[in-house]
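Go through the following before class.
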Amino acid sequence: MRLLVTGGAGYVGSVCAAHLVETGHEVVVLDDLSTGHRDAVPPDCKFVEGELGEAAGDVLAEGFDGVLHFAARSLVGESVERPELYWNGNVVASFRLLEAIRAHGTPRLVFSSTAATYGEPEQVPIPESAPVRPTNPYGASKLAIDHMISSYAAAHGLAATSLRYFNVAGAHGAYGERHAVETHLIPLVLQVAAGTRESISVYGDDWPTPDGTCVRDYIHVDDLADAHRLALTHATAGRHDVYNLGSGHGFSVREVIEACRAVTGHPIPAVTAPRRAGDPAVLVASSARAAEHLGWTPSRTDLHRIVGDAWTFAQGGHGRP
C-alpha cells in the first residue's frame, strides 16, 4: 500500500514507518519537525516537511491507500498550562486532515490515540467499554478526535481505527525515544545510568500496590508497530473501531528501576518524592479486543528486553544505522 505517516519523524511514528517500509509498503512521512527529528525518518521514505493542517491536502492529492496519524502534541502538563496548543495542534489540525482524507477519497485511517482518554480508571485491566473521562486537555483532545473520526466513518464510509496506547517503550534498532522534554519513566531512569541525570524521583511509596509504587502497563514499540499494520488490513469501510494496546500486565516504578539497574549495571540512585496529584495507582490495559479482532498479542513483553532495547539505542547514538 501507499501510506502517509503523519508525525513520522517522532518516536512511535518513525518506528512504525520503519516497520511499514520493511514489510514492503511505500511510505511518505509528513512532519513539521517541531518535536521530531529529520534523521529519524527512515531513508526509504519520502519526506515532506510541513504543518499537518496546511500540507495534508496537497500531499493526499497524490493518491494514498491509507493514513497513519501520529502527529500531535502530547505533554500532559503543557496541555494544562496551554490548552489552546492542544485544541489547535491536535483537534483543529486533525479536522483538517479528515477533510483532506474526505476530499481525496483516502479509504483508511489509523489514529494514534491514548489511554489518557479514560482518565481515572474504575476497573483494572481497563477495557474499551470503560467510561471515557479524560482529566487533562491532552486526553480530551484525543477523545475529541476519536469522536470526529467516528462521525466521518459513519457519514463518509471511512475505514478507521483508533489505537489507545498505554506506556510505550523500547526501540527499533536506530529508531527510538528522544524528546526535548522527557517525561517517560524508562528513558528518565536510563538518563541516570548514562550520567546525564543525578537520580530518579519516585513519586510516592505508599500507593495501594505490592511495593507501594505506581504500576503501569509497558508495551514494546515494535509490538505497537505490529498492531498498526494489522489495523490497516482489518479496517472496514464505514466503521470506526477502537482498541487498547497493552500487555495486560503492569510493572511498578521500583520494578522498572531494578530492571534498569540490571541491564545497565549502574546503581541508579532513587529518591522518594511526594505523590503527584492525579496519578492513578494502577493503569493496565485489557487488549482482549485487539487479540480477538486483529489477531494481535504482544510478543516482546519481558521488561528486561524492553529496557535493553531502549538502553542500546541510548548508548548507540541517534539516527540511521
